[in-house]
């Protein structure tokens, strides 16, 4: 079981997720060699699905697949090196997934380059192009490869790890990163309208606060002692949410995808819905969001602000 992956045990049973709730399903997860993507992949595999890990990091991707097979049994996971900004890589991913498992039922779009996290005035146009190529264009390419088969079989779930899509407040990071995410979120919500009543359900999940600090990357203080690990504090939770908990929330959302179709959910609301207030019961927001109607969602995208100032 030795692995260089920075992971912790899953907590699926504690959240009330049935062990074989996704048995017979096949999932493709992009950006799944580490952090939240790996959390998704491990949780989905635990729930009984076969998983296809797609990532640009070949070493970590192979190790992630190996570890998932150790956890769940040989033949549970495969890794396909994939640059989602390249259409030919997405097409190869579809070929490899279908060759291994015969179909794809679940498409979890998660890939993104965290280094594309700059302010508009500081970023190059090439950074903006790459943000869009990975998020907006990459998500659309994956949809075109996998969703037609889902429609034909009358079942499927398509989701996206979204973020602040309207604008980027300082606590989140750079606007270039969120610009690409905004494009993908818009693609997802349009897809939801296009596939209504086909058996394919589409939603976004915002995994706000899910992060793991790699101890080896924590700088050493001038006195030679390790620096204190940074805390990640935002309104709604205390401290960091581990990727494993994020994976639990994703499985819960997949199992309830019909209720989420055409909408999105913040991870804390998923924890509340499953009565799994991780990591701290006092830090979980209560009833702060609701599903928007189609018209409200349309207006939310159209509304850029209050208009003229007095």
CATH topology: Rossmann fold
Number of domains: 1
- Percent of residues in β-strands: 5-15%
> Low-confidence parts, pLDDT < 50 over ≥5 residues?
229-238
Global outline: globular
Overall mean pLDDT: 84
In the CATH hierarchy, what is the class? Alpha Beta
* Number of extended strands: 7
Strand order of the largest sheet: 3-2-1-4-5-6-7
Corresponding CATH architecture: 3-Layer(aba) Sandwich
State the end-to-end CA separation. 64 Å
Number of helices, where a helix is a run of at least 4 consecutive DSSP H or I residues = 9
The assigned structural class equals: alpha/beta
Report on the architecture of this protein.
The protein has 310 residues and is α/β, with parallel strands linked by helices. The chain has a single domain (13-302), classed as Rossmann fold (3-Layer(aba) Sandwich). 40% of the residues lie in helices and 12% in strands. It is built from 9 helices and 7 strands. A 7-stranded parallel sheet has the order 3-2-1-4-5-6-7, sandwiched between helices. The longest helix is centred in the middle third of the chain and has 29 residues, at 125-153. It is globular, with a radius of gyration of 19 Å.
Give a quick precis of the structure.
This protein is α/β, with parallel strands linked by helices and 310 residues long.
Identify the notable features of this structure and list them briefly:
7 strands; globular; alpha/beta
């Amino acid at each position: 079981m030795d692995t260089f992956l920075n992971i912790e045990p899953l907590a699926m049973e504690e959240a009330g997720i049935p062990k074989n709730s996704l048995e017979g399903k096949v999932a493709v997860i992009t950006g799944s060699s580490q952090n939240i993507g790996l959390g998704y992949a491990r949780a989905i595999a635990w729930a009984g699905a076969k998983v296809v890990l797609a990532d640009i990091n070949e070493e970590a991707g192979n190790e992630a697949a190996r570890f998932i097979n150790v956890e769940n049994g040989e033949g549970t996971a495969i890794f396909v090196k994939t640059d989602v900004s390249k259409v030919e890589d997405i097409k190869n991913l579809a070929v490899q997934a279908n060759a291994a498992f015969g179909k794809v039922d679940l498409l979890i779009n998660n890939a993104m380059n965290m280094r594309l996290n700059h302010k508009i005035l500081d970023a190059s146009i090439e950074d903006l192009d790459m943000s869009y190529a990975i998020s907006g264009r990459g998500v659309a390419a994956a949809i075109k490869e996998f969703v037609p088969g889902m429609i034909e079989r009358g079942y499927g779930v398509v989701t996206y790890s979204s973020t602040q899509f309207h604008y980027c407040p300082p606590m989140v990071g750079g606007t270039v990163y969120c610009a690409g995410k905004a494009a993908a979120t818009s693609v997802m919500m349009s897809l939801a309208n296009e596939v209504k009543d086909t058996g394919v359900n589409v939603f976004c999940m915002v995994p706000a606060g899910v992060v793991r600090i790699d101890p080896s990357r924590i700088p050493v203080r001038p006195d030679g002692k390790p620096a204190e690990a940074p805390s990640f504090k935002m309104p709604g939770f205390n401290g960091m949410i581990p990727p494993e908990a994020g994976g639990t929330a994703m499985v819960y959302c997949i199992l309830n995808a019909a209720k989420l179709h055409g909408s999105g959910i913040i991870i804390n609301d998923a924890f509340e819905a499953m009565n799994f207030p991780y990591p701290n019961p006092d830090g979980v927001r209560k009833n702060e969001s609701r599903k928007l109607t189609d018209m409200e969602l349309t207006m939310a995208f159209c509304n850029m602000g209050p208009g003229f100032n007095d």
